[in-house]
Write the structure tokens for this entry.
Amino acid sequence: MLLKSTRSEGESARFKDAIFIGLAPDGGLYYPAETIDFTGLYRSFTGETSFNTIATEMTAAFLRDETDREGARRIVERAFDFEPALVDVGEGIRVLELFHGPTCAFKDFGASFLASSMEEFLQEGKERAIILTATSGDTGSAVARAFYGKKNIDVIILYPSGRVSPLQEKQLTTLGGNIHALEVQGSFDDCQRMVKEAFNNGALKREFSLSSANSINIGRLFPQSFYYVWARMRMEKDPVFCVPSGNFGNITAGLYAAHWGLPVERFIAATNANNVVPEFLATGVYKTRPSVSTHSNAMDVGAPSNYERMETLYGGDVENFRRRIQGDWITDGETEETMSRIYRDHGYLMCPHTAVGYRAAEKFRALRGDSPVVTLSTAHPGKFVEVVDRVLGVQPELPPPLLALLDREKKAELVKSDAGEIERYLRAHF
């Protein structure tokens, strides 16, 4: 599978190289350059096909020139001892629960696949890799857990001080070993900028074999397409997928699945007040801005990286975007009201991010009541105990992976929001 950069047709790489490179040398993001038609493959799946079977067959097809089917099976089986769940919540809306992995967030799917892929390909040589990743909450915890204890791989996670939930911070900072946490005095956008600047320093990147596990890494993005296929196979009609969106990796994976032939009616990009993409879809003008804090903190992104991939996919034409995607944004007040009402009426607890998606789905259904909507649920409500308790007066029951963190000690180094801090840390510790 030949991958190209969003910024230069001349920059290309194989998948097994791109996952270690992370960001392309020209600063762009890798995307599949070849025409992919999975229509026949999708038709071979049914509502009874297991998640791991779908993942294995798609991986074998995607990496047909880089590994055999047995290699694809090894990657998938190591990555996934968990799967999604599809739950009816309200008329015409189904919730795709993606929080049944080890850190109770959807990013477990991408992080686990990436870690397993790197492990598979590192076995071919004696290379080492340092994973450098920024997180607004769930990415870091999923990456930390997926890569913990992996041989020949260290992980450095940057997260914004005071802008992740206490449990998210525990997931980032309590593992130790080959997992290193940097608490940045700034926003997620600062963290993301620091990581990009480090990758744009070619000499530093080569010296320390830097790679990324953010959704800028194609090895994390590709496996997120699996659960769209799994969910579609369980629907009688072409669904609308409503995706709570921050950095836009999750919805981009769905857009690729559809681009490769998956029958989908359309997508809804649901954001909080950080609504640069819904604003673009409404006005045709794309303008990034500093992020603002909301209840759905993992979506507090003012300059979403994966917009580049979407722009490349649709040729930068807003009308092409609009044929496939529509945008909506939900206030904190609407988020709280949705969490309260759905719990009262259906007994269903949802995290604030899921509530953003669910409310956007409701608004769409009010206009298009004949369309089935699948709303992606991105995290277990137990990861946001403080918000859930304040809004509902209910303490969500913590799943075992979260309970185990409560008494563990935080280990993180406080740093300024300056890219030089990354180089300083690398030289001091590696």
